[in-house]
Inverse folding.
């Protein structure tokens, strides 16, 4: 069961309830900007009897957004189209299912089942977040779809209820239903939002090849002496980016390095930059550096682009 703790919850998941996932409503449609995320800290605690891994992670939304447009339709069908901004290769469009297997469609089907709705939806997704990259694009799109149909169908379901449904579909999806950074535990669905995080600047690279999350978890070895997320949260919250940079950590990184040569390659390239710290995000293959400020992130992005390593973004963390 998804469990969002640590902040007052609005009674209904209205547009005002989601400041980081931006929701706009017109007479005919709901438009949602769905952010990517970075894992600033990620520890794998143990393998669970249900096949999932118990994790502790500090996740931060960043200002790279997909845009989802949803309109109600009365004929009970779900029509879905997806296109990519900036070239299909940059966002790994070949990794994004275009049909009923897409998480967006599955999320809408799930809401329809749970809320016993008999209406349909026309959905268009513009992708900017690279897929199979550890940036949470598919999960964020799914969360956006849940919020959007809650609006267009006038369901008025609470954020907690939507998060419970979301957790059935994917471990990362409930995170995108809260504002700002959060510690996520369990298989990722138990969310504790973190208040007072300073604004952070990042440079992010998504290399040409991605990795599938199940493959990376299968190859990982849980930490024999796990590091607790608490120290990382304290260091980020204290507002000293240099200190924060030293606690970036990803317990899946060693497994991803065994599966893709890109992860080690990126680690070596980032070590040549003057970032405050660097790590892989999620199950990879995206790799990011923490920068001193936005200008530093843009400068680092220019240097990385010149190295021809894949799609490069300068990004800001959402507080
Ligand atoms: O929950 P989600 O569908 O995103 O997970 C995809 C796969 O990643 C799972 O089927 C599982 O193999 C692996 N996983 C895991 N432990 C987690 C999250 C995901 O082993 N905490």
């Amino acid at each position: 069961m998804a469990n969002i703790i640590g902040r007052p919850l609005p009674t209904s998941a209205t547009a005002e309830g989601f400041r980081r996932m931006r929701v706009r409503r017109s007479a005919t449609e709901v438009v949602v900007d769905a952010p990517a995320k970075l894992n600033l800290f990620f520890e794998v605690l143990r393998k669970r009897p249900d096949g999932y891994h118990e994790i502790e992670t500090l996740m931060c939304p960043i200002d790279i957004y997909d845009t989802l447009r949803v309109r109600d339709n009365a004929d009970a069908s779900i029509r879905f189209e997806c296109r990519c901004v900036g070239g299909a290769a940059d966002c790994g469009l070949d990794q994004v299912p275009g049909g009923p297997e897409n998480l967006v469609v599955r999320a809408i089907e799930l809401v329809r089942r749970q809320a016993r709705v008999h209406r349909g939806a026309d959905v268009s997704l513009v992708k900017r977040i690279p897929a199979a990259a550890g940036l949470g694009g598919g999960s964020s799109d799914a969360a956006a779809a849940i919020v959007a149909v809650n609006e267009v169908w006038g369901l008025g379901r609470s954020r907690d209820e939507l998060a419970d449904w979301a957790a059935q579909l994917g471990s990362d999806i409930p995170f995108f239903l809260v504002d700002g950074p959060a510690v996520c535990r369990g298989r990722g669905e138990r969310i504790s939002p973190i208040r007072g995080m300073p604004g952070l600047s990042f440079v992010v690279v998504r290399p040409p090849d991605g990795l599938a999350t199940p493959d990376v978890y299968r190859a990982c070895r849980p930490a024999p002496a796990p590091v607790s997320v608490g120290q990382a949260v304290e260091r980020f919250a204290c507002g000293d980016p240099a200190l924060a940079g030293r606690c970036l950590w990803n317990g899946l990184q060693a497994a991803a390095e065994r599966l893709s040569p890109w992860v080690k390659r990126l680690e070596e390239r980032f070590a040549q930059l003057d970032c405050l710290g660097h790590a892989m995000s999620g199950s990879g293959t995206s790799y990011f550096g923490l920068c001193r400020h936005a200008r530093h992130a843009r400068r680092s992005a220019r240097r990385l682009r010149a190295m021809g390593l894949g799609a490069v973004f300068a990004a800001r963390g959402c507080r």
Summary: The chain is about 30% helix and 30% strand. Residues 137-152 form the longest helix (16 residues). The pocket of cytidine-5'-monophosphate is lined by residues 52-53, 55, 170-172, 187-188, 213-214, 217 (CB under 6 Å).
